[in-house]
């Protein structure tokens, strides 16, 4: 495991493959930093810390920017990203003092901010206030963190350029040209995408082919303007401008196959001064290859929300909730297994759902007013809106509904799977990767309606949803393993196979002595793969990153 990744010491947890899903690049800038220096402005530097086993560990630090209260750091922090963990980050800004390096004394501390990797990835751009010790605001200081997934697995393009008959800028030899490509963003600012190597002493250079991600090249927008500049290299850093041209990724794509695209490399000054000026050479795109491979992060960063539904088993086999032996007993000092499982999985999912509202359903109980058995009731008893505010809202609804219902049976889960599937089917019709549904079923026994459940799972495997089943208590769950298609392919009673494996089943008892994060890791480890499989099968690309407004704040720190 890379040191830059928060995680418990590796738990001996069953079947928990911890694949690094992606690496994420974080770019940091600050505004309105406090001025700690008497004679000139602060010289800021940012430290990135990650929480590991409750301790904050420094992962990396930025360069020091001299005398600047609104620094934009060139340093790019790279962190491993795991969907199935809450990875806590802390950014600390210090005023640095030359040779002494970064002091970590209180009087050099310009402020800190905490968040999770999941929050930054889901929002792509997070701006939060900086806080001093004891929760005091550091004046008006803010820190902005922008995340981009590292290219390589999010669709990339391979480009091969050459130039012909470039202007000669050197007296005693020929120019030493290199090419830079800039992406022009909506605010007209330019982002350097790529800089080629220098080809020495050559007016018709052929540069090495290179790969860039589509996100980095054009923010996935084919019509976005690109500015390409050719320079004559100078070892003292004073490169001579040869010429430039503007293009788009759309235009570049004409170079696929046998075709080539070429542009006049223009120097605007010469165009005005010289009457017969044609160009300062031509640049040719010899070849372009597109590799479109999308990852889970592409979908999340493209604005795909994870909608979380929890379904709780209220059948009589759980035992009377007033009795301390019951699986539904509310112990003021220790959450029961239902609550532990709900919180462990829900806490991860909530970072990926912008409205933080979760559907919470119950099954297998007689419910007021008529005390008829229901297999898909809202535990907040609002038939029009089964959503609760955050994980805490689900916990409160669960606790307040227990005294009002009568535990009964049987253990039928097909109605709830079908209910979530109906919502997922509406979503599928939008033909966009905008919402994916996770259904967490918490049950104390083997399901009674196995045939209907198998049928419902086969139907659901064609929709944007995944199902996680956690077996609570000490029942024999052998028959439940059939639903988790790991051993073979789950089929409907008529023999129709699932399109993709969408069910993960785990008995809670295997995690009783492990930390709650181990359970979440195990049950959520498959989800990213399932999301990608579904959208790949449907050939839905990620929606393009919606850049947030600079002040899209997360809630204030914990």
Kindly describe this structure.
By secondary structure, this protein is an alpha+beta fold. It has three domains: 22-150, Sandwich (Immunoglobulin-like); 156-291, Sandwich (Immunoglobulin-like); 296-538, von Willebrand factor, type A domain (Rossmann fold). 18% of the residues lie in helices and 32% in strands. It contains eleven helices and 26 strands. It has helices spanning 117-123, 214-218, 249-252, 268-273, 296-301, 337-349, 390-401, 414-428, 450-460, 516-524, 527-538, and strands at residues 22-31, 44-52, 55-61, 72-81, 88-95, 109-116, 125-131, 137-149, 156-164, 177-184, 190-195, 210-213, 225-232, 240-248, 261-264, 282-291, 305-313, 357-363, 365-367, 372-374, 377-378, 387-389, 406-407, 435-443, 465-471, 503-507. The strands form six sheets. Strands 17, 18, 21, 22, 24, 25 and 26 form a seven-stranded mixed beta sheet that branches. Strand 10 (177-184) and strand 11 (190-195) form a beta hairpin. Helix 6 (337-349) crosses helix 10 (516-524). The longest helix is centred in the last third of the chain and has 15 residues, at 414-428. It is globular, with a radius of gyration of 29 Å. The two termini are 27 Å apart. The model is unreliable at 1-20 and 546-558 (pLDDT under 50).
Strand and helix layout:
Layout: E1 22-31, E2 44-52, E3 55-61, E4 72-81, E5 88-95, E6 109-116, H1 117-123, E7 125-131, E8 137-149, E9 156-164, E10 177-184, E11 190-195, E12 210-213, H2 214-218, E13 225-232, E14 240-248, H3 249-252, E15 261-264, H4 268-273, E16 282-291, H5 296-301, E17 305-313, H6 337-349, E18 357-363, E19 365-367, E20 372-374, E21 377-378, E22 387-389, H7 390-401, E23 406-407, H8 414-428, E24 435-443, H9 450-460, E25 465-471, E26 503-507, H10 516-524, H11 527-538
Parallel strand pairs: 17-18, 17-24, 24-25, 25-26
Antiparallel strand pairs: 1-4, 1-8, 2-3, 2-5, 5-6, 7-8, 9-12, 9-16, 10-11, 10-13, 13-14, 15-16, 18-21, 18-22, 19-20, 19-23
Helix pairs in contact: 6-10, 8-9
């Amino acid at each position: 495991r890379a040191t830059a990744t928060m995680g418990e010491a590796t738990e001996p947890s069953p079947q928990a493959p911890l694949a690094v899903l992606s690496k994420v690049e974080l770019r940091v800038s600050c505004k309105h930093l406090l001025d700690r220096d008497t004679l000139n402005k602060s010289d800021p530097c940012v430290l990135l810390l990650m929480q590991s086993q409750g301790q904050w560990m420094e992962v990396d630090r930025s360069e020091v920017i001299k005398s600047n209260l609104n620094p934009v750091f060139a340093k790019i922090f790279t962190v491993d990203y795991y969907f199935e963990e809450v990875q806590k980050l802390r950014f600390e800004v210090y005023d640095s003092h030359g040779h002494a390096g970064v002091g970590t004394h209180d009087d050099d501390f310009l402020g800190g901010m905490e968040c999770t990797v999941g929050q930054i990835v889901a929002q792509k751009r997070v701006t939060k206030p900086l806080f001093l010790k004891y929760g005091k605001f550091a004046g008006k200081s803010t820190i902005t963190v922008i995340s981009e997934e590292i290219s390589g697995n999010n669709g990339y393009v391979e480009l091969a350029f050459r130039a012909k008959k470039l202007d000669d800028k050197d007296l005693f030899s020929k120019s030493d040209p290199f090419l830079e490509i800039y992406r022009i963003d909506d605010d007209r600012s330019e982002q350097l995408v790529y800089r080629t190597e220098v080809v020495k002493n050559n007016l018709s250079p052929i540069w090495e082919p290179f790969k860039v991600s589509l996100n980095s090249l054009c923010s996935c927008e084919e019509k976005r303007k690109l500015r390409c500049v050719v320079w004559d290299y100078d070892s003292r850093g004073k490169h001579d401008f040869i010429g430039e041209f503007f293009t788009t990724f759309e235009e570049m794509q004409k170079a696929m196959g046998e075709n080539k695209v070429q542009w006049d490399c223009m120097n605007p000054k010469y165009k005005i001064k010289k009457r017969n000026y044609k160009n300062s050479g031509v640049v040719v795109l010899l070849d372009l290859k597109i590799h479109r491979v999308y990852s889970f992060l592409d979908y999340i960063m493209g604005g795909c929300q994870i909608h979380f539904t929890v379904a709780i088993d209220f059948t009589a086999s759980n035992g009377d909730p007033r009795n301390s032996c019951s699986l539904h007993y509310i112990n003021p000092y220790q959450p029961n297994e239902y609550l532990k499982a709900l919180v462990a999985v829900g806490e991860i999912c909530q970072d990926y759902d912008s409205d933080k509202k979760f559907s919470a359903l119950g099954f297998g109980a007689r419910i007021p007013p008529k005390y008829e058995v229901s297999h898909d009731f809202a535990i907040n008893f609002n038939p029009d809106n089964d959503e609760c505010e955050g994980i805490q809202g689900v916990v409160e609804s669960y606790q307040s509904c227990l005294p009002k219902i009568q535990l009964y049976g049987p253990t039928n889960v097909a109605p709830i799977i079908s209910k979530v599937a109906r919502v997922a089917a509406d979503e599928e019709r939008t033909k966009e990767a905008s919402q994916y549904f996770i259904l967490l079923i918490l049950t104390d026994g083997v399901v009674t309606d196995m045939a209907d459940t198998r049928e419902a799972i086969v139907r659901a495997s064609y929709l944007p949803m995944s199902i996680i089943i956690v077996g609570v208590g000490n029942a024999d769950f052998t028959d439940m393993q059939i639903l988790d298609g790991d051993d073979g392919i789950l089929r409907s009673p008529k023999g129709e196979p699932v399109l993709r494996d969408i069910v993960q089943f785990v008995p809670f008892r295997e995690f009783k002595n492990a930390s709650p994060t181990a359970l979440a890791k195990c049950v959520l480890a498959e989800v990213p793969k399932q999301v990608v499989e579904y959208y790949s099968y449907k050939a839905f690309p990620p929606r393009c990153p919606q850049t947030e407004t600079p002040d899209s704040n997360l809630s204030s720190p914990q």
